[in-house]
Automatic annotation (TrEMBL), chain A:
It comes from Dyadobacter luteus. Residues 24-105 form the KaiB domain. PANTHER family: CIRCADIAN CLOCK PROTEIN KAIB2, KAIB-LIKE PROTEIN 1. It comes from the Bacteria. This is Circadian clock protein KaiB. Gene3D superfamilies: Glutaredoxin (3.40.30.10). SUPFAM superfamilies: Thioredoxin-like. GO terms for biological process: rhythmic process.
TrEMBL record, chain B:
One of its GO terms (molecular function) is hydrolase activity. This is non-specific serine/threonine protein kinase. Residues 510-544 form a coiled coil. The keyword tRNA processing does not apply. Its EC number is 2.7.11.1.
Length: 109, 566
C-alpha cells in the first residue's frame, strides 16, 4: 500500500460568527475505500461547509500505535470533534444525507 | 488411545501447549500451532480464563509472548480478575511478554455512512503482534463486533479475512464465543474457525454444578472425545483426563501391613499387597474408620506418605477419635507424612471430587490413600456414576502404585452384603465387619470376604476396639456355636478356673505320693534294722557253737592225751 501521500490538512476560510468544524478522517493507506472517502468528504465540506472547516486526513499506517490510542476499528472513520458533541462516522462517506445529518448540518430526512 | 504415533515419520500437526493441567493431555499436546482455536460456552463457563491461561502459560513457560484483544473487559478489569490466580498481567506487560488491547465497541456512537472494513483492527493487531513478537493471540469475545456494527456482510467477510490473516501471520489464535441457542456460537463463528473447537459447559444435577469441557472438533489429530469435567480453583483450570480404562498396570509382590498383626496373620501372614485396593464395609458403628485409621497409622509408622480423604468427619474429629483407641495421628500430620482432605460430598459434583482428589494426590504424592466413606458420594451421583468414578480412581491409583482403602457403609437389610456402590467386584481385598448380636449385646465380627492372590483365613474373628487399639480375637466355639463378647469372656473364665483347679489337684497328688514314699522308706529302714539284729543274733549263736565245739575238741584231745600217758 502506498503510504505517506494521504495525510494532509485542508482548511477553508472562517465565516465570522460560526463555530468552525474540526474533522479528522482516519484511513488505511490508499485503499479504494480510503480514496472514495477522501473525495466524498472533501466534496461535502466544499459544498456545505465552505471556508468553515478544518479537515485532517490521517493514514493510520503511518502511526500504528494511533489505532489503539484512538480506538480505531472500522476504517475509514471520520471524527467530528468540533462543534460539540463529538461524532464518529465510518464508511466511505457515500451516504451524503447521513453524513450531513451526523455533522449536524441538516435534519434527518 | 495413543498408538505410538509419536514415532511416526509423517510430519504431525505442530501444537502449542496450553500449560493447563489435563488439557494438553486430551488434545495430545495443546492447540494447533499457527491456527485459530475457538473456545465457546455460556456466560461464566470459563472461556476468558482458559484463554488467559493459554496466554500467560505461553509467555511464562513456553517463551511465546501473546496479545490479548479484549472486546469486553478493560485491561485493568482483566488484570484484577486474574490476579487471584497469581497472574501478574501488569508485570508481564512491562516485560513485553503480554500486550493487552482493549477494543471498545459501541453501536450508538458510530454512524455508518457507506463501505468500510476492519482495517483499524488489523492495524492494531498487527502492531501489537509485531511490537512484542507475539506467537499467541486471544480475541475475547470477537462477537462483540456484531453488536457494534450493522453491516453483517462486511463483518463476515472481514472475520474470514481476519482468521486467514492470523494464519498467515503464523500466530496461534484463541477466539472465544458465546454459546448460541441452536449453534455453538451466536454468530456461527465455528464456520470460520474450523481447526479446533472446544466447548465449555456446566451441568447441574442434584443442585450440584459440574463444569464440562468437550473437544467438538480438532482437525488433523487424534483427541479425546469424551466430556471431561474441569475445575476452576485458585490455581486456575484443571481438566480431568482420568478415563482410560487400561488394565495393564504393574503389579507388586510387596506386602503392606494393615496395622493389626492378627489381621495380617489372617491375610497370609503379611498383610495387603502394595498398590492394591481394599474395601472395608460394614454397618454403622462397626469400626470401619478405626480400621482405616489403624492402617494409616501403620503406614505412617513405616515411613509412607498417606492421604486421608474424609467425607464425613473433619480431620480434627478423626484425630481425636483415633486418639481414644491409642492412635496418635497428629504427630504424623505435623511431620508431613499424613495429609487430610475433608470435603462434604455435596460440595461439588462427583467428577470434580475425582478431579480434586487426583489433584491433591498429584501434589502430595502419597503411597497410601484412604477414602472414608465412599458411601456418602452416592448423595451426589447415581450408583453407576459412583462405580465409574471408583473404577477410574482405582485405575489411576494403581497406575501410580498407590494402595487405597475405601470404607463403605452397608445397610442392615442388605441381604447380599454387597456395598451399595457395587464396588466389591473391583477391589482386591474386601473386609467385612458385621454385628453379631447375642445375649443382649452387640459384638463385631470381621471376615475376609476376598483377598486376591493370597491365602487368607476363612474364619470369623471377633474384632475388639479398646483403649489400646484394635485387636482380633479368636472366636470361641462353644456348645451353642460361635461365642463373642461377654459370652466368650465367660467361656474363657470358665476354662481358666478349670485349669487352676486341675493344677491344684495335680499338686495335691504329688504331695501324697511323696508322703507315701517317705512312709515306705522308713518301713524299709525298720525292716533292715530288724534283719541286722537277727543276723547278729544268728552270728553270735554260731560263734558260741564254734567255740563250744573247739573247747570240746580240745578237752577231748586233752583227755586222749591224758589217757595215752596214763
Amino acid at each position: 500500500m502506498s503510504q505517506g501521500s494521504l495525510s494532509d490538512t485542508y482548511a477553508g476560510h472562517n465565516h465570522e460568527g460560526d463555530e468552525s468544524f474540526v474533522l479528522r478522517l482516519y484511513v488505511a493507506g490508499a485503499s479504494p475505500n480510503s480514496i472514495r472517502a477522501i473525495s466524498n468528504i472533501r466534496e461535502i465540506c466544499e459544498k456545505h461547509l465552505e471556508g468553515n472547516y478544518k479537515l485532517q486526513i490521517i493514514d493510520v499506517h503511518q502511526d500504528k500505535a494511533l489505532a489503539s490510542r484512538e480506538q480505531l476499528l472500522a476504517l475509514p472513520m471520520l471524527i467530528k470533534s468540533s462543534p460539540y458533541p463529538e461524532k464518529k462516522m465510518i464508511g466511505d462517506m457515500s451516504d451524503t444525507a447521513k453524513v450531513l445529518h451526523s455533522l449536524g448540518i441538516i435534519d434527518p430526512v | 488411545m495413543s498408538y505410538n504415533s509419536d514415532n511416526s515419520v509423517i510430519q504431525k500437526l505442530p501444537k502449542a501447549p496450553t500449560g493447563i493441567d489435563g488439557l494438553d493431555q486430551i488434545t495430545h499436546g495443546g492447540f494447533p500451532k499457527g491456527r485459530p482455536t475457538l473456545i465457546c460456552g455460556e456466560a461464566g463457563s470459563g472461556k476468558t480464563l482458559m484463554a488467559i491461561e493459554f496466554l500467560v502459560h505461553g509467555a511464562q513457560k513456553f517463551n511465546e509472548p501473546g496479545v490479548f484483544v479484549a472486546f469486553e473487559e478493560k485491561s485493568e478489569e482483566l488484570a484484577q480478575n486474574v490476579a487471584s490466580l497469581g497472574f501478574d498481567l501488569k508485570q508481564l506487560e512491562v516485560d513485553k511478554l503480554i500486550k493487552i488491547d482493549h477494543v471498545h465497541v459501541e453501536r450508538s456512537e458510530i454512524e455508518e455512512t457507506g463501505e468500510y472494513n476492519l482495517d483499524g483492527l488489523f492495524i492494531r493487531l498487527g502492531y501489537a503482534i509485531d511490537s512484542i513478537g507475539a506467537k499467541r493471540v486471544v480475541l475475547d469475545t470477537i462477537e462483540s463486533l456484531f453488536f457494534g456494527l450493522n453491516n453483517l456482510a462486511v463483518l463476515r467477510a472481514e472475520l474470514r479475512r481476519l482468521f486467514h490473516w492470523l494464519k498467515e501471520k503464523g500466530v496461534t489464535a484463541v477466539i472465544t464465543g458465546e454459546k448460541g441457542e441452536a449453534s455453538l456460537t451466536r454468530q456461527g463463528l465455528e464456520e470460520y474457525v474450523s481447526d479446533c473447537v472446544i466447548l465449555l459447559d456446566h451441568r447441574i444435577s442434584n443442585k450440584v454444578s459440574t463444569r464440562i469441557l468437550r473437544i467438538v472438533k480438532y482437525r488433523g489429530t487424534v483427541h479425546g472425545t469424551n466430556e471431561y469435567p474441569f475445575l476452576i480453583d485458585e490455581e486456575g483450570i484443571s481438566v480431568l483426563p482420568v478415563t482410560s480404562l487400561k488394565l495393564n498396570n504393574e503389579v507388586s509382590e510387596k506386602r503392606i501391613s494393615s496395622g493389626i498383626p492378627t489381621l495380617d496373620k489372617m491375610l497370609g501372614g503379611e498383610g495387603f499387597y502394595e498398590s492394591s485396593s481394599i474395601l472395608v464395609s460394614g454397618t454403622a458403628g462397626t469400626g470401619k474408620t478405626s480400621i482405616a485409621g489403624n492402617f494409616v497409622n501403620q503406614s505412617c509408622k513405616d515411613g509412607m506418605r498417606c492421604v486421608y480423604f474424609a467425607f464425613e468427619e473433619s480431620p480434627q474429629q478423626i484425630i481425636r477419635n483415633m486418639r481414644s483407641i491409642g492412635i496418635n495421628l497428629q504427630g504424623y500430620v505435623d511431620s508431613g507424612l499424613l495429609h487430610f482432605s475433608a470435603a462434604r460430598p455435596t460440595l461439588y459434583g462427583l467428577e470434580l471430587h475425582l478431579l480434586s482428589m487426583t489433584k491433591f494426590i498429584e501434589k502430595v504424592k502419597p503411597e497410601v490413600v484412604v477414602l472414608d466413606p465412599i458411601t456418602n458420594l452416592i448423595t451426589v451421583g447415581s450408583t453407576s456414576e459412583v462405580k465409574s468414578l471408583l473404577t477410574r480412581l482405582i485405575d489411576y491409583l494403581q497406575s501410580k502404585g498407590i494402595t487405597v482403602m475405601f470404607t463403605a457403609l452397608a445397610l442392615k437389610d442388605n441381604k447380599s452384603e454387597q456395598s451399595d456402590e457395587g464396588v466389591s467386584s473391583l477391589v482386591d481385598a474386601w473386609l467385612l465387619v458385621r454385628d453379631i448380636e447375642a445375649n443382649g449385646e452387640r459384638n463385631r465380627g470381621l471376615y475376609i470376604m476376598k483377598s486376591r492372590g493370597m491365602k487368607h483365613s476363612n474364619q470369623v474373628r471377633e474384632f475388639v476396639i479398646s483403649d489400646q487399639g484394635l485387636k482380633l480375637v479368636d472366636v470361641f466355639l462353644g456348645p451353642e456355636g460361635v461365642l463373642t463378647g461377654s459370652a466368650r469372656e465367660e467361656q474363657q473364665l470358665l476354662e481358666k478356673t478349670g485349669m487352676a483347679l486341675r493344677d491344684h489337684a495335680v499338686s495335691r497328688k504329688d504331695r501324697e505320693i511323696e508322703r507315701k514314699r517317705l512312709v515306705l522308706e522308713s518301713k524299709i529302714a525298720t525292716l533292715k534294722e530288724e534283719f541286722e539284729s537277727i543276723q547278729e543274733e544268728l552270728n553270735r549263736t554260731y560263734i558260741e557253737e564254734e567255740l563250744k565245739k573247739s573247747i570240746i575238741q580240745e578237752n577231748r584231745h586233752e583227755l586222749t592225751q591224758k589217757r595215752d600217758t596214763q
